[in-house]
Amino acid sequence: MSDPMSRGAAERKSTRKRQLPVRYSEDNEYETKATAKTNEKREENRLQKEIDQLKSENDDIVGKNETMIALQKEMETERDEFKRKGEEMRLNTQIIMEELRASKTRIPDLQKEFQEKCNLHKAESAKLKKMTNELLQLKNNVDPEHEDKNEREKIENLKKCPYCRGYFTNESVAPLVLKCGHLLCKRCCIVDYEQNGSIFCIGCQNAEPIANVEEIDAFPICHSILSIM
Ligand SMILES: [Zn+2]
Ligand SMILES: [Zn+2]
Q1: DSSP designation for 17
Q2: What are the pLDDT digits (tens) for 8-54?
Q3: Domain 161-227 has CATH 1.20.1300.10
Q4: What ligand has the least distance to the C-alpha of 208?
Q5: Cα(148) to centroid of ligand 1, in Å?
Q6: Residue 183: in which H helix or E strand, if any?
Q7: In the predicted model, what is the mean pLDDT of residues 141-154?
Q8: According to a count of CB atoms within 10 Å of the terminal CB, is the N or C end of the chain lower?
Q9: How far, in Å, from the CA of 161 to the mean position of ligand 2?
Q10: How far is the CA of 149 from the centre of ligand 1 (A)?
């Protein structure tokens, strides 16, 4: 079965072993043992180194793992904070939306209320104005001084031409009596005739046409007015 060559080699080896002297054999055994021990020690050192390496790697991994756990925790905290803020924002938005909806329904009510108040104010203002006028009227009725003033004003107005507001005189601003019975100064009569061919009476709000300037000369002068000047 085994090949003849290797069997031959084995035989040669055993033959040589047999031929070794005893002392040499012991030495050889001792050497073998020492070599084995050295190898063992070397192996042990190698294993120790490997163990140290593995330990160091393990420490590294443990360190990294701790860092990762810390990071994870940090991330979880941040995520919780984010979540909390999100929820807060959602609630705030909800509140704002509700307030907005409420104010939307309130606006027409407020507008209506405002309009009502405006109307009330207007009515009160009108009432107040009316009352003030009534009071003023009452005051005028009971205040003789005021009555005198009114009378004086009326008389003063009679002394003036109703159109140019100039005081009547004997000459160019003479108080002429128009056909309707109202007064107008001579100067205004001439100007009106020259510009429009008619004379406009303020009292009647009517323009009376005249043919020539002699018609103006024919208007009588109101001596009663001149007598109170
Ligand atoms: Zn006049
Ligand atoms: Zn008139």
Answers
A1: H
A2: 544 555 555 555 555 666 677 777 888 888 889 999 999 999 999 99
A3: no
A4: 2
A5: 27
A6: strand 183-185
A7: 80
A8: N
A9: 13
A10: 24
